[in-house]
Amino acid sequence: MEEVVKQDFINISKPLTYKGIFAFHKYWGKKPIETTSFFIENFTNPGDIVLDPFLGSGLICRECVENDRSFIGIDLNPFAIEHAKLILDLPTLNEYKIAFELLKEQVCEEINRSYTGSDNLVRSHYLWDDQELKQVWRKNRGRKVILEPNAHDYALAASFNDYQITNFREATFFNNSRINSTSGLKMHDLFTGRALRNIDILIEAINDFPRYLQRALMLTLTSAVGQMSNMVFAITDRGKNGNGSLNEIEVGSWVIGFWRPKLHFEINVWNCFENRAKKFIKTLSLIQQRKIRFTENIGQYFSSEFDALLIQDDCLKVMNSIPTDSIKLISTDPPHGDRIPYLELSEVWNSILNKKVDFDSEIVISDAKNRNKKKANYIEEMKNFIREAGRVLRPDGVVIKVIP
To answer: Are 357 and 255 found together in one domain?
Structure first.
């Protein structure tokens, strides 16, 4: 037994890359699943309760349930809870494929009209140097065709400049140089009017689906939305700073924060969505379906047979309602000072999901001075968390702090 545990411990020091459902969506500071699995298998027994009070990406929740452990996940971030719900309540492969094809039938043609050139062919990419259009790309039998921009391309893009979003809320940003944000930043600064209009079209159609399919389709959208933005840098033959020639140029990606590179791509919104949907379809084809019962009501969880409890709220408030000596393992990645301001970084996703965010209750140190999230407050709140963790933990319980 000791040899098995020793070998498992060696394995977690070299975690694999994320695959399947664990690679579906970007999140800041994902924890290696091998680490989580090791502690669940070796420090808990079937039926024990595992708690993650700073849930984040939520990957731990499915790992617990599949190992017959009960799970409690808490996070102030609406996106984190939505993502965890998806992981626990995945649609079947057939359900998602049918929903995707129906959605495609409803919106693909309308979205693509906004990218149609003067030759009536659909464009895939626009390369912008600030406000100047440098290249227009289309596909021909899977191969890239580079075109010179013309008056039609400029006029079509400009026709959406004043578009006002209708199906999701305006984002809230703060003055935080660490993540390249300012309090005056708006969604129109991060996306073209054309992209915002097409995101709106997707959301309006998605809202007609049943709730569990809405969640899967909306998170497909949020997983793709970074590539729909003005934050997709162009990689030239001299790097990603836009100082090289345009002879050999590649599409970069959205990186952490809200950096808006001068030389950037605008990518067809439907293509971005479809690419992510196809990856999700492949993921679902490899997953063995299991009925998982979860609730968002703490009273129901402790009085009935639920596999998991997911709550979007302040962890200190929720933990106060957890019975003393009830948790076998607390495995979490708590906020590390000002390193990653999770709510600020997740704001685009929460905006798209139309979720209200409680920035005031976040336990964090933020470089955004107007948030008044200072070190002293952070230390006091973390002390309160440690006290509550000690109260809810069983005498034989374990606390694991995972830092990715």
So the answer is: no
Q: Which of 285, 307, 335 is the last residue of a domain?
A: 285
- Alpha-carbon distance 289 to 190, whole Å? 37
* Residue-by-residue DSSP string for 70-123: EEEEEES-HHHHHHHHHHHSPPPHHHHHHHHHHHHHHHHHHHHHTTB-TTS-BE
Task: Read off the pLDDT of residues 271-295 as tens digits, 9 standing for 90 and up.
Answer: 999 999 999 999 999 988 888 999 9
Specify which residues 310 forms β-bridges with.
73
DSSP, residue by residue, 11-38 = HHTSPPPP-GGGGSS--TTPPPHHHHHH
Identify residue 268 by its one-letter amino acid code.
N
Mark whether 300 and 337 lie in a shared domain: yes
In a shared domain, residues 226 and 317:
no
| Residue 110 sits in the same domain as residue 239 | yes
Cβ atoms of residues 229 and 190 within 8 Å: yes
Range of the domain at 246: 93-285
225 plus 138 within the same structural domain: yes
Is the model's pTM score more than 0.85? yes
How is 260-316 classified by DSSP, letter by letter? Answer: --SEEEEE-HHHHHHHHHHHHHHHHHTSPP----EES-HHHHHHTT-SEEEEES-HH
Phi, psi of 306, deg, nearest 5: -105, 145
Distance of CA 290 to the CA centre of its chain: 23
